[in-house]
Amino acid sequence: MSTPYARPVARVFTAAQTQEGAGFHVNRPFPTRMMMDFDPFLLLDEMGPMQVAPGDAKGAPDHPHRGFETVTYLLAGEMEHRDSQGHAGKLTPGDVQWMTAGAGVIHSEMPSQAFQQRGGVMHGFQLWVNLPRTDKMMTPRYQELPAAGIPSATSEDGKVSVRVIAGEALGTRAAIETRTPILYQHFTLQPQGALDHSVPADFNVFAYVIDGEGQFGADATPAKTHQMVVFGEAGEAGERVTVRNDSDKPLSFLLIGGKPLGEPVARYGPFVMNTESEIRQAILDFQAGRMGRIPASGTTD
Ligand code: MN
């Protein structure tokens, strides 16, 4: 299956375990000391998977963002979000929210009241996608896709299936519009399934294993649950990504890639700009209330 043009794997490492928001557990492949960012991506968090007792669910209360996008993909559980523009909504399993913070939003990301009361399994992902200099101060926008609205496809042999959140896979195009060229795809390979996937030669590409184990890249490098697989660098490493599942269980992973921005990154918590003075301005704008406030409570149901 492998040809000289398939990308090799450059690195495999296990996500760090940490806490976020009000204290929920995340597996974080980056940023960590292992890897600060992965241009054009700034962060990937896997929330859970964890069993949450009734009344114990934690979230991320009101906080700002400026200069990038947050992409939330929920696999289990139920989340609610509210923001300073009066936008509110709910995420259920399989749903995607692609939030372009641009010039700034303040939002909360919390378990829904119903989930809070009954508990259950919480599992999901948040990816931070950097915005180019020209888009950092754009008007905030949301793209929200219910699970049923996410294009999906299955290979002819039935062994490879994909949910196409961004980009194109198995001949199926995403419904999301991205500011810069991005791919974000959730693949499942059945035992003996093999993927041979075209990716643009100038993309940085990685896989993150959600569940199972597989053989990645031209050298069939093994990786398993909670591991990040970095494919060879864009530009020099070819335009195909290959993955096999030689195990006897399904393999589920995210395949994420994008054209690097190649711009300076000035980063301070929830603000990601190009320069330190732009960061200082973001802090001033936030403190002065120029990113707005979340309207006082009410139900989002
Ligand atoms: Mn947030």
Automatic annotation (TrEMBL):
Pfam family, one: Pirin
Keywords recorded for this protein, A-Z: Iron, Metal-binding
Domain Pirin C-terminal: start-end pairs: 184-292
UniProt xrefs under InterPro entries: Pirin, Pirin_C_dom, Pirin_N_dom, RmlC-like_jellyroll, RmlC_Cupin_sf
SUPFAM superfamilies given in the database record: RmlC-like cupins
Coiled coil location: none
Binding-site list for Fe cation: H63, H65, H107, E109
Cofactor: Fe cation
GO MF term (any one): metal ion binding
Domain Pirin N-terminal: from-to ranges: 24-129
Cofactor note: Binds 1 Fe cation per subunit.
CDD domains associated with the record: cupin_pirin_C (cd02247), cupin_pirin_N (cd02909)
Protein name: Pirin
Organism this protein belongs to: Pandoraea eparura
Lineage of source species: Bacteria, Pseudomonadati, Pseudomonadota, Betaproteobacteria, Burkholderiales
